[in-house]
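hiii, so i know i said id send this last week but things got crazy w the move. better late than never?? heres the sequnce for the chain we talked about at the cafe, plus the structure i predicted for it. fair warning i was half asleep when i ran it
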Amino acid sequence: MQTIITTDDTSAINTRDRGLNYGDGFFTTAKVIAGQVEHWQYHKARLVECAERLAFPAINFTELEQHIAKAITGCQLNVLKIVITRGEGGRGYGLPQHTHLTILITVLGFPQSYPALAKTGVSLALSPIKLAAQPLLAGLKTLNRLEQVLIKNAMAKQQCDDVLVLDHQNNVIEASAANIFAIRDNKVYTPSLEQCGIKGVYLQSLCDKLAVEFKQVSLNELTQASAVFICNSLMGAVPVSRIEQHTFNVEQSMCLLNELLAKEAKC
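okay and structure toks below
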């Protein structure tokens, strides 16, 4: 069973909700254009994967999609956020015998800075906060985002648009709230997410259009690429203009990506 709470609902979340107490849940954030959720099939697949890997019961998508359709009616350019928790119950960390999901649907304004960044590119500094390895949660967008909170807090003191985040073995993983991928010798590669990090919806959609290699990536290797991009479901693919002191040609980066996409579309 599941309870769906929308933005206009007067319902309250119980103080015993496991999402609030233990971060026992997951979420996805989607772009809404002209009343439609962009890449919905990928967001849906993400929610299914999270539910399966975290031992949640199956989500009733028929009911969920009805609530989403109602919530985004009339939206032209907005952000849809779906948060799913295991609800109440259980003793301590132990799971409840019968799970009743809590699902929150929120519609937000679209970030105004994204269109400009797509043209100018983003400058990346190196985050002093590193990601811990946990393969059981790697790739999932769980409610446990304290590392990202610390990353954003440290970033406020850095001169950049975003930050490049490494793991404790100094492998490149992602940006503060986006995946990262690079082009070199007309090949696309992205950091391995087997130990930590989030596999984003846009990255997944890109993998269905291009041959993308997941591999360990060092900072030095990344700066030697012909083009580097950060990406998520809201901003799409945005070229990187600078990593620390190393600069990239934004126009050239976009040309390389567009050429690869066009070539693949013809195949």
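btw The chain has two domains: 2-110, 115-266. thought thatd interest u
miss u guys!!
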